[in-house]
Amino acid sequence: MRYTLKQIAVFDAIAEYGSVSQAADYLSLTQSATSMSLSQLEKILGRSLFERQGKQMRLTHWGEWLRPRARRLLQDARQIETGFFDLQGISGDLTLCVSQTPAEHLLPELISLLDHRYPDVRIKVSVKSSHNVIEDVLNYRSDLGIIEGRCDDHRLCQEIWCSDQLTIVAAPDHPYASLPSVSFELLAQARWVLREPGSGTRMVFESAIHPYVPQLDVWREYDFVPLLCSLTAHSDYLTCLPYLEVKPLIESNQLVALNVPALKMDRSLSFIWRADVGEHPLIDCIRTTGQHMVEGRSLLR
């Protein structure tokens, strides 16, 4: 094996940042050393891994093929470093990608517990839609993900963390707000503002309502939940959001939860990780801490 882990790490960093200079900063190398490592790797493999477009670096077909394999190789190398945690305590770096609802309402407590139990574990967090969380884990950009709803990709392991529930809400002065129950015919006539396509909330809501209302009148789509809540509270829109998100607004009478008896929108929040990772002490300690955190707790109203 003629290539080195350093060369693989340089390739992966350039692929991540699209720039030799930014990759050098990330790796704490000089720009010339970074360029040299990439050149050596390309010479060893006999293939160009990037197309140079000014200062930007874009993966070639061969670079795209190498990227997930390089990520796995680097993950295995990190696992070797952390694999002796029984001797010196759990430590190391982990990248965690989380969808919006657990990021806002569960992640702060989880990280606080991890900081207390495993002070030498460093966690890098990004917040994305459930669809993008899945993509990040599949493409080795994140070690562990937390999503809303289901993931059926056989390349990933999924473990339910806790339960949640979606709720349709309206402004207190909306015509539907005073009704004891709301029919699907009325929901079909309403104007909606919803989470963006690809979000876990949107996917669960559409799956639940589509058999009854095949086509909703969707006026706006946003990934920023406070904006959806504000639009709904100050207009005649309806929206559907996790109960965790709207609970404070319902309790302060800024929003009203609508009763739609036939519509069941319970869902799960889950950890996901690549099935081919094998044993990973950092993933295990986060999952275990998360399960202890919500043990005996339900997020359903």
TrEMBL record:
<keyword id="KW-0804">Transcription</keyword>
<dbReference type="InterPro" id="IPR005119">
    <property type="entry name" value="LysR_subst-bd"/>
</dbReference>
<keyword id="KW-0238">DNA-binding</keyword>
<keyword id="KW-0805">Transcription regulation</keyword>
<dbReference type="Pfam" id="PF00126">
    <property type="entry name" value="HTH_1"/>
</dbReference>
<dbReference type="Pfam" id="PF03466">
    <property type="entry name" value="LysR_substrate"/>
</dbReference>
<comment type="similarity">
    <text>Belongs to the LysR transcriptional regulatory family.</text>
</comment>
<dbReference type="InterPro" id="IPR000847">
    <property type="entry name" value="LysR_HTH_N"/>
</dbReference>
<feature type="domain" description="HTH lysR-type">
    <location>
        <begin position="1"/>
        <end position="60"/>
    </location>
</feature>
<dbReference type="InterPro" id="IPR036388">
    <property type="entry name" value="WH-like_DNA-bd_sf"/>
</dbReference>
<protein>
    <submittedName>
        <fullName>HTH-type transcriptional activator CmpR</fullName>
    </submittedName>
</protein>
<dbReference type="GO" id="GO:0000976">
    <property type="term" value="F:transcription cis-regulatory region binding"/>
</dbReference>
<dbReference type="InterPro" id="IPR036390">
    <property type="entry name" value="WH_DNA-bd_sf"/>
</dbReference>
<dbReference type="GO" id="GO:0003700">
    <property type="term" value="F:DNA-binding transcription factor activity"/>
</dbReference>
